Amino acid sequence: MLSIPLPIQKNWHLYLGYGGLTMQIRALAAQTTVCILAGGVGKRFLPLTADRAKPAVPLAGKYRLIDVPLSNCLNSKLGRLLVMTQTMAHSLNQHINRGWAPLFPPESDNFIEVLSPEWRGGEKKWYEGTADCIQQNRFRISQENPRWVLILAGDHLYKMNYLEDLLVRHVETGAQLTIASVPIPIRDAKHFGVLETDANNRVRNFVEKPQGEVESMPSDPNRILGSMGVYVWDTAPMCSILDRCTAIERVEHDFGLHVIPMAIEEGLRVFAYPFVKANGEPEYWEDVGRIKTYHSAHMKLMSPNPEFDLYDPDWSWHTAPRHSPLAKSPFRATLENGAMISDGCIIDQALIDRSVIGPNCRVRDGVVIRNSVIFDNVHFGEGAYIENAIIDKHNRIPAGAIITPECVSGFELPPDFIPPEDGVIVIPKKTTVWNGWEPTPNSL
Question: pTM for the whole thing?
Answer without folding.
Answer: 0.90
